[in-house]
Design a protein that fits this description.
The complex is a heterodimer of chains A (260) and B (350). With 260 residues, chain A is an all-alpha fold. Chain A is 77% helix and 0% strand. Chain A is built from 12 helices and no strands. In chain A, 34% of the residues are buried. Chain B folds into 2 domains: 223 residues, P-loop containing nucleotide triphosphate hydrolases (Rossmann fold), CATH 3.40.50; 110 residues, no CATH class. Chain B has 9 helices and 20 strands. In chain B, strands 6-7-8-3-9-10 form a 6-stranded mixed sheet, sandwiched between helices. Classes of the chains: A mainly alpha (260), B alpha+beta (350).
Chain lengths: 260, 350
């Protein structure tokens, strides 16, 4: 009987956790259809007006475009650099490899606020103007550990003999990577790109510190919230949530899928 | 002549503190089939990988033909290697796998396709070109891997446990096929295996390796009939080992006094008075009621084509004897007389 009790307690814990994470988002989604300006119950009247406003307000669409461009370039660069790092971490033997691994993965452990402030101070000292590309460089630093971890796991699974066979048949080191390693990592590369994209897309702190006028979507949302509540945010938040969630699920599915 | 010789001089390899291969010399003739035979961890695969360029030599030089390739990367050597796991590219079709070497040479697609079809026909897999390796059986994959390695007609083909991933029946059949293929293509083959039967069936010469050294090099018959050490004698086939004292040299043979079998005329040379060890193959001994040497039958085991008798000699030495089928089998616990023809025992280096 204690077993059944324990499993029931576990189930309760699981659903409790899910509720804590998703209930606020669910409430936001419900209010995004409320015609009232404030979040009151019962909901007086249902409307899709706020969704329409998201698209008619030029600042939201501009922010969305900026965010997609930024996150897209950041993930592309991070996936490419991450692949190169992961490949050398798996294959190369060099002194200080452990330290190198630590340095690459360390940004995961540093509070993002510190990273943002440090980057701002540093770029100012270098005389660089805050801009979207600069924020991109900062965000690459932020998502690179994810890319390296993902791809390192995949590359480490591959039999070394495949690459060696390609060399023996006349392929150069680079050619063997392109012909043998990259195809075997295809799903992982796509998943890594998507994962980096979702993280960069939602990223606020670095983007806030390193941009001036061309604002990303998270910054636009934040400034809107600071200057006074606008129900449009509920609609926007709901859409962004669904967008990010579907990307994340796709990435997970690609990573979990049995790869031959 | 495409086939190339391989010359190793003082070749060694250490991994950190571990000396995997001690400095060794080896001369492989063009078109020869040489097998490196030994238990796992004896360094045979490391030698093969150094010839392929997949490991760098710690000391020594490697010549393929007349060319010193010691510091060449694998893609610049006139060698090809087939791996135990075949290492077929899983996302490429069988045809593209076979033609990969030609693609690296920059051959056009029609030439590659034609050459691949030729090899597919040769290995009996015509019509399988569009399949992925995963859709083939183990034996078929092995043949595709061979074709892929041979399509460039490398001066030297290296085979790492070529039949190791197959089951016993198929392995025996493919030993013969591999031997025939070697004759057909006329290239130099260097194989690595831990299976003595495989080595004996396929090879022109065998290098028996132990603890990073070549213990003995010779034809399969040499090595079976004239093992120089107990390790080689026991690794290639079954044998019993007895001790004795050398008495005198008589022609090519040496007379040895043994406690187990009395006076024995063994192959080899030894200083009179020296304590020596003799190896006896199970087929060397035969039963002879009139013989002086007596032994106790401890067990009789049916092995298929013979009955193997386990015997205990007068001094307690354990002997084995293969009895042809149809011969009456003595009962366990009984005494038998043993005859050992001159030259049937082999003197081992101490």
């Amino acid at each position: 009987m204690t077993g059944a009790l324990a499993s029931r307690a576990l189930a309760a814990l699981f659903w409790g956790t899910v509720a804590v994470i998703y209930l606020p988002i669910g409430i936001m989604a419900v209010f995004s259809f409320s015609a009232a300006r404030y979040q009151i119950l019962p909901i007086p009247e249902y409307t899709t007006e706020w969704y329409g406003r998201v698209f008619t307000d030029g600042q939201y669409t501009a922010g969305f475009v900026n965010s997609v461009l930024l996150a897209g370039s950041v993930s592309l660069v991070a996936t490419l650099i991450g692949f190169a790092c992961a490949y050398s971490l798996v294959n190369a033997r060099f002194p200080g490899k452990a330290a190198f691994t630590f340095l690459i993965l360390a940004p995961l452990a540093v509070p993002l606020l510190l990273v943002g402030i440090a980057l701002r101070i540093w770029t100012t000292m270098l005389g660089l103007q805050p801009s979207l590309p600069l924020a991109g460089v900062g965000q690459v630093l932020y998502v690179l550990p994810l890319a390296v971890l993902n791809l390192r796991n995949r590359i480490a699974q591959l039999p070394k003999s495949h690459e060696e066979a390609a060399w023996a048949l006349g392929a150069s080191r680079l050619r063997a990577i392109v012909d043998v390693i990259l195809p075997a990592c295809r799903a992982s590369l796509i998943a890594t790109f998507i994962l980096c994209f979702t993280f960069a897309f939602d990223e606020f702190v670095i983007a806030y510190f390193l941009t001036n006028f061309s604002v990303t979507l998270p910054i636009k949302i934040w400034t809107t919230l600071v200057t006074g509540f606008d129900p449009t945010i509920n609609a926007l938040g709901t859409m962004v949530f669904i967008f990010s969630l579907s990307l994340g699920v796709t990435a997970q599915w690609l990573l979990m899928r049995k790869v031959r | 002549m495409r086939a190339k010789s391989v010359t190793l001089r003082g070749l060694s390899k250490s991994f950190g503190d571990v000396q995997a291969v001690h400095p060794l010399d080896l001369d492989v003739q063009p078109s020869e089939f040489l097998t490196l035979l030994g238990p796992s961890g004896c360094g045979k695969t490391t030698v093969l990988r150094m010839i392929a360029g997949l490991e760098t030599a710690t000391t020594g030089t490697i010549l393929v033909g007349d060319e010193d390739v010691t510091s060449q990367p694998p893609n610049r050597r006139d060698t090809s290697i087939m791996f135990q796991d075949y290492a077929l590219f899983p996302h490429k079709s069988v045809r593209d796998n076979i033609a990969y070497g030609l693609k690296m040479q920059g051959q056009t697609a029609p030439i590659r396709a034609a050459a691949a079809e030729g090899w597919l026909a040769r290995i009996g897999l015509s019509g399988y070109g569009d399949r992925l390796p995963a859709a083939l059986s183990g034996g078929q994959r092995q043949r595709v891997a061979l074709a892929r390695a041979l399509i460039l007609e490398p001066g030297v083909l290296l085979l790492d446990e070529p039949l190791g991933a197959l089951d016993a029946g198929l392995r025996r059949q493919l030993q013969i096929e591999l031997r025939r293929l070697h004759r057909d293509v006329g290239l130099t083959f260097i194989a690595v295996t831990h299976d003595q039967e495989e080595a004996m069936t396929m090879s022109d010469r065998i290098a028996v390796m132990r603890d990073g050294r070549i213990e003995q090099l010779g034809t399969p018959q040499d090595i079976y009939d004239r093992p120089q050490t107990e390790f080689v004698a026991r690794f290639l086939g079954r044998c019993s080992v007895i001790e004795g004292r050398a008495v005198a040299q008589e022609g090519g043979l040496v007379r040895v006094d043994t406690a187990a079998l009395g006076p024995v005329l063994a192959i080899g040379t030894a200083m009179p008075g020296a304590i020596v060890r003799l190896a006896l193959r199970p087929e060397a001994l035969s039963l002879d009621d009139a013989a002086m040497a007596q032994a106790l039958v401890t067990d009789a085991v049916f092995t298929g084509n013979a009955v193997r008798l386990a015997l205990m000699a007068a001094d307690g030495a354990v002997l084995e004897l293969d009895l042809a089928r149809g011969t009456p089998v003595p009962v366990a616990g009984g005494q038998v007389g043993l005859r050992l023809p001159p030259g049937a025992a082999i003197l081992l280096a101490s």
